[in-house]
Amino acid sequence: MVKSYTLKTKKLKTIKPSKDKMVFLFGPTSVGKTKLLTDICKDKFSVINADSIQVYKGLDIGSAKASKDIMEKIPHYLINILPPTKQFSVADFIKKADEACEDIYSKGRIPIISGGTAFYFKHFLYGLSEAPPTDPKVRKEIEKQIKSQGINSIYLALKEVDLQSYNKINPNDSYRIQRAYEVYKTCGKPLSSFSISENPRNNMEPLIIGLYRDNEEMQRRLRVRVDLMIKEGLLEEVRRLIREGAKEDWPGMQGIGYREFFEAIKNGETSRSEILSKIVLDSKHYAKRQYTFFRSFENVNWIEASKTQEIESLICNFIKNK
What are the tens digits of pLDDT across the range 194-207? Predict the structure, then answer.
């Protein structure tokens, strides 16, 4: 199991990103973020993980965590910080990422927030919406419905009251489905009606880099990635998780590379090739959604991922001019 950089969270000061350098590096699954980090960012930077599955302990191969060697070269934060039974919300990410930034600055380094979970980037930059907290009574009622009828019943109900959220949320993302429906049941307004600020919080002005590759190359890389996960022991990792009691409704099991195995068990499928094909297909669909979401960001420097020198030059100029 790989280890992440340990945070010392005592006596943290309020972060003031407007006075400090910060880089956002995002892009879809398999675009090549990890290799880029090791090629050009190891000397002055520390990485804050912005992948919703890599926060979990024991989910190493399916989540494509950086290797132990890479983590020894570049300090990584927010990796292996929770058991896969625990939910890690966007609010949790903002809090932990702020703490990580302060710790990184105190060491004279620069944070790079890197990953593929678009909600983490968006809300870290702009903050959370003003949607009301859920009434505990409402939450219990919804949890009771989920237990008796399944999460899909809530997902379909959400479609009737908040189509915008329904279209944005993955049908396997039980946490966000439940949260969106809870907001409506609590206040009678859809979650999508609560906008977030148009201005970055704390006057944050990060360098934002979006990586992309042409569609044919991305398809090839996704297939290669799945093949590599199998060679590295994904099947053995999943078997270990199941022996340890993993269930399909665990937050950590919602990630691509894990949920397909539980879906296969539920549907009575045993063909390894079918499961792997499903992982590739789900990865393709996810990459498409990631591109769509990231394209909505402003002030993004979109660069083809293989243009390492161009990216390095952009980062170096940003550091010099800030």
Answer: 877 778 888 888 99
Higher pLDDT, residue 272 or 94:
94
Structural domain includes residue 40: yes
CB 126 within 8 A of CB 196: yes
d(CA 212, CA 232): 26
Whole-Å CA distances, 157 to 17, 23, 48, 190, 244: 40, 39, 36, 12, 33
| Inside any domain, residue 201 | no
Structure letter (DSSP) for residue 56: B
CATH of the domain at 161: 1.10.20.140
Q: What is the pLDDT of residue 42?
A: 66
| Alpha helices for 127-271 (secondary structure H) | 136-149, 151-161, 163-168, 174-187, 215-232, 234-243, 259-267
CB 229 within 8 A of CB 154: no
Element (H, E) at 17: none
Distances (CA, A) of 322 to 20, 231, 260, 316, 319: 8, 44, 45, 10, 6
Burial string for 119-143 (b: 16+ CB within 10 Å, else e) reads bbbbbbbbbbbebeebeeebbeebe
Q: What is the mean pLDDT of residues 223-251?
A: 92
Please answer whether residues 183 and 132 qualify as being in contact, where contact means their C-beta atoms are separated by less than 8 angstroms.
yes
| Angle (deg, nearest 10), helices 90-106 and 118-126 | 70
How many angstroms separate the CA atoms of 69 and 66, rounded? Answer: 8
The rounded Cα 279 to chain-centroid distance in angstroms is 17
Give how many domains the chain has, as a whole number.
2
Structure tokens at 119: 């909600």
